[in-house]
Amino acid sequence: MPDFRYSAKDSKGHEVAGVYSAPTRFDALSQLHDRGLTVTDISDEGVGVGGIEMAKVTARKGFVLGRVSMSEKAIFCRQLSISVSAGIPLLESLESISADLENVAFRRVLERVLKKLDDGAPFSQAIAGEPKVFDRLFVALIRTAEEAGSLTETLSYLATSMEKNDRLARKIKSILAYPMFIGGFFILISAVMTLFVLPQFQEIFAGYGNDLPRLTRMVFAFNTFVIHNTLWIFLGIVVAIILGIMYGATPFGRLQIDGLLVRLPVVGEITRKLAVSRFCRNFGIMMAGGVPVATAIEIAAEVLGNKVMEASMKATRDRIMAGNNIASSLDKKVFPRLVARMVGVGESSGRLPEVLTKVADVYEDQVEGTIMVAISLLEPIIIAVFGGLILILVMAIYLPVFSSAGHVR
Questions:
Q1: What total of structural domains would you count in the chain?
Q2: What spatial distance separates the first Cα and last Cα of the chain, rounded to whole Å?
């Protein structure tokens, strides 16, 4: 039997390390857990849990010409789970699913995966070379499922998780649709007024000179500046966007931007709650799949999408590695006390994955509720601001008319 080198904590939080012999890595994890140990890391022949090193090496090889949406990946997992559970071989199931895909980019990805499977590679290693579609979380769970013989259950669990994430993303998009429409409509109206309407009135009132009301002169001067410098303004906006993207692509810039998002009044609250929800769901999935705690936290932190929150989660991992339990290691600035208490209960009762899933569900509902409240307050503000700007333009046009009518009388 192969030997597995492991690091773990006993019931008192003391660090334990050693070598354990078992038929598979999953058997070693299960037997160490039965002995009352919380495994933080385990590997055989230098390969970490979830194929972390293997995923890092092969991550550069994959590329996707188009976008593969979350809903498409969820449907893929659901179909593959059903096919495998029905007794259809994995290779045949993948060939059938690939042939029916409408997304050409996704089909090309599965064709490369099938080629690797034909060459004798395991499924987890084949998908590890496609990091644009199958992230480290996906690869780690599939590798664990292969060893445990629970590929069907894991695929079904992944499909359910992706479906929930996709539903949340769709709800957020639908909530934001109205404010975005109002903003776009206002930009269109402003462009029409600036380029076509105001120049006509400037010609009509050209002979008035300084007799025009101050508001009208200010609006006409600004409109003239915009028309004469339209190209430079457009180029400035484009350059600013490009520089912003380049700055956000740097490690320091990404950290600064993510830190700003966390500190903003309403956006920060939504960002933190969304991070807690994603972390708990992904961490719970990996704990249920048998991934060691340290590796599970590292992977769950990397898929949060916020570098500040990721750093906080990795600090939590370091505290766990130092001998603390999971509940006491959670960052109090990110996780409310109620969440820490629930995690502590789940940890002591051995039902941590179930508790983490429930916490994720609660926080997803809170994120949706917070966004709905924010948008309900934002809508009248947007309408008031845009209406005020339109009112200024209308007043600038009609004030000279009213002034002229007064002089006539």
A1: 2
A2: 106
